[in-house]
Amino acid sequence: MCVRARSSSTQYPIDLLQVCRSTMANSNSVKVVEVCKVAPLPSSPDSITSEQYPLTLFDLLWLRFLPVEPVYFYEIPPTSNPHIFYDSILPKLKASLSLTLQHFLPLAGNLTWPQHSPKPILSYVHGDSVSLTVAESNADNFPHLSSNDFVEAKDYHPLIPPLEVSDERAAAMAIQITLFRNRGFSIGTTMHHAVLDGKNSCSFFKAWAHICKQGTGIGSSFSSISLPDNLNPFHDRMAIHDPKRLGELYSNEYLNQGGPNNRSVTHRRPPKALPQDLVRGTFDFTRANIQTLREHVVKTTRVADSSSLHLSTFSLGCAYTWICLVKAEEIKGEKTAMIFGVDARSRMDPPVPDTYFGNCVVGRVAVAETKGLTGEDGLVVAVKAITEALRSLDDGVFNGAELWVSKFLDFSLYDKVYSIAGSQRFEVYGTDYGWGRPRKIELVSIDKTDAVSLMDSKNGGGAVEVGLALKKPQMELFASLFAKGF
Length: 486
Known about the structure:
This protein has helices at about 55-60, 85-105, 140-145, 200-215, 245-255, 285-300, 305, 315-330, 370-375, 380-390, 445-450, 470-485, and strands at about 15, 25, 30-40, 50-55, 70-75, 110, 120-125, 130-135, 150, 170, 175-180, 185-190, 280-285, 335-345, 360-370, 415-420, 440-445, 450-455, 465-470. It has about 475 residues and is of the alpha+beta class.
């Protein structure tokens, strides 16, 4: 059914009845209560009515990738009001979202590729909005979904909203807020990857949380809230210099993919059939764990060698995860690879502002022989491969960039290619809307991309957590292998 929000004297741009549906998101587990459109709150009568953001070379790299799907879980504090979610929490989330979008206009916009344009365009026009789904779960599984226990991957899927996409037009973002009665709620999001990178995504959530937490109600208290400098996005696309005209090259290559003049702005791969026994697991690296790995590498290699290796939390955590995965999945091929992204903002010439909104990540590939990864010195082999991949940045951010779309990696050379999604530096567990830190954060999209999620740990203390989606027997073996190293 379609439910109208409770009446309020405060008006903000939410059209509750523009789009409604009463379908079940997943048979008998999550019921859609309402679908509404939330538009950016105008900051003044002279607010921007339209804006265009041509895709840069970094955005174009992700044009036809699958969308990103994070979901945040929050507990509802104990209260005597059984209706607190609909009376207070939901109205505050809606009102603060509207104000946050004022700072993040591209997220309310759409991607198109007009016939007259050499590149796809992200545009915002007054009246554009974000689709917001409100749903309720009738399953008493909030503690399980928000724990570090193994969870069936399909149980997260009803918490992620559909993104309105077609070959001609794609929404930038959709949001779903799901209530687990007497327990908590989740905020699930689907984001088109050509619009933003992981750093932007986390900044958006933190900005929304900051405004929501500072506001005392759903009225004028929100309008006077400003964002701190580190959350205020920088939107000037001219900051991305493209002297090699790589954006034009990538656009032409996309036009020729699958026929002439292919202006599709969405991925064209058929949906991946997920194994029935696919489960998700989360594994923590404490500071002590990372130090144990660091000491092992130093002791195993000569001093001269270890001093030249990249022994950061990122490198060590990724390396250890890599060797455990290769063993758990019993990879037999000659070589495996691991792809990871590096923030290019500070590496550009001239440097790009840290709060630049838009993709600004370059991919790097670590390659190692499988037998080396599964051998006694597997951790050292993996660390050396990651170090070598990072050193390639010394040759320049754009070294080899001409092939990033046409042939970034020849997958036929490897029995398995892993990838890392996210970064512990984003500190996503600091995203507090006013009801406490997240109980759990999951990157649901790794089910479809075979990636490994990486973020700071909900347990704090400088710990890092990785998230995986594997068949249950492989996950159990991975867990056993993971624990043996500490």
